[in-house]
Known about the structure:
Blueprint: E1 7-15, H1 17-38, E2 41-48, E3 53-61, H2 64-70, H3 84-87, E4 96-99
Antiparallel strand pairs: 1-3, 1-4, 2-3
Amino acid sequence: MPTEPTIAxxxxxxxxxxxxxxxxxxxxxxxxxxxxxTALGVQLFREDREQESWFxxxxxxSDLQSMTAFTKGEPTKVHHLDRDPEFLIELPAFIQIHRIxxxxxxxx
Length: 108
């Protein structure tokens, strides 16, 4: 099994600005830890706009099989957190899965 990621799984969701701080704390506590235990890496991004705040989670996987095992056989299905309907403006309908073609870090 490769130790370098070959697959990135990308989820995006948005909240109203007044819910953004609470959702950030929630996703850090409930959404990120399972990925930290299983994926090769995970990143959480937040973009605050005037009318909404966007959250993007990218998890990195060695191969499609390891990601499929984590998602219980449905890698493109969105697995919503219990409180997502409370926080999110709309529930995301899909996950993006990308093959990693170049993975360079530490460039100056």
